[in-house]
């Protein structure tokens, strides 16, 4: 049979154009869909980190609208705007656990939201592996430092420091 | 520049650029802001000295700029959330952008006196 001879010749086109190697008795090999989950796919994939990051940006953003715009209203608009700010003013505000909690949540959410945003931007523009790695290390160091310092300041604030 | 490779994304592209730029600006401000607030752990005088610079006319202009950046980022951020989660969001993204800009202008006009009033009084006397 000429078809079988063709098969050993490693070409899929038969003598007459349009005649193929495959028919009902000789089905074509199945080509697996790209990225299909099979038995060979490793169990440990990379997980959904980027999806949770995407979701966090949106959820934290909604909360930050209230926290940050409220903060700006208090600091820049109400009660004489910036002119009233000073040590005594801060002492008055942080005497209340409510405003301590407000500032603490705002600090953590804004820093994590901003840091995750900057991570995306670094990934977008820093093309060399080395540059990208070190920029992100700098970002993470600055973020951890700022969050810890801000948290410490809220919890250890002492109105009678003098 | 090779012909035909310039991406012209219109309003959607420019709002994305502005969202990015304002996000970075706010992050850098926040870094400095936590450092200056930390001075309350040094001494009341150290804190009040630094806060005094926040009350000068030139820094008042910067504060107005910061308010502009945050208001845009916040309003446009809500628009992004609406585009992603509201089924009709993508269809109305352009109308929502103009709504954002409208609210932004109103709030910026409203912030003029509270944020810059004291600076104007200082520069022009009275
Ligand atoms: C020019 C505008 C601003 C002024 C005058 C201002 C003023 C202040 C003051 C006086 C405090 C001391 C605590 C208190 O009173 O609540 C404070 C703390 C804080 N502010 Fe602002 N703020 C401004 C903008 C912002 C913005 C835009 C953000 C967020 C992106 C922010 C985030 C914070 C945080 C996280 C704290 C707590 C700091 C810490 O934990 O040590 N502030 N701010
Ligand atoms: C006031 C309320 C806020 C809202 C509603 C908001 C909303 C958002 C949203 C939805 C994104 C995601 C964009 C995307 O995935 O494509 C985003 C990105 C970002 N945000 Fe915010 N945000 C707010 C406050 C802040 C603050 C306080 C900072 C800085 C500390 C900040 C810094 C950033 C940065 C750097 C990005 C990344 C921009 C990019 O990838 O192009 N945002 N914001």
Quick summary:
Chain A is built from five helices and no strands.
Intertermini distance of chain B: 56 Å
CATH class placement of the domain at 51-156 in chain A: Mainly Alpha
Order of helices and strands of chain A: HHHHH
What is the string of helix and strand elements of chain B? HHHH
CATH homologous superfamily (4th level) name of chain B = Fumarate reductase/succinate dehydrogenase, transmembrane subunit
The total count of strands of chain A amounts to 0
Which of globular, elongated, flat, extended, rod-shaped describes the shape of chain A?
elongated
Query: What would you call the structural class of chain B?
Result: mainly alpha
Oligomer: heterodimer
CATH superfamily of the domain at 51-156 in chain A: Fumarate reductase/succinate dehydrogenase, transmembrane subunit
Number of discrete domains of chain B? 1
Mean pLDDT of chain A: 88
Helix content of chain B: over 70%
Main sheet record of chain A: none
Query: Whole-Å distance between the termini of chain A?
Result: 103 Å
Number of helices of chain A: 5
Strand content of chain A: under 5%
Per DSSP E runs of 2 or more residues, the count of β-strands of chain B stands at 0
Structural class of chain A, by secondary structure, is mainly alpha
Mean pLDDT of chain B, to the nearest integer, reads 92
Shape of chain B: elongated
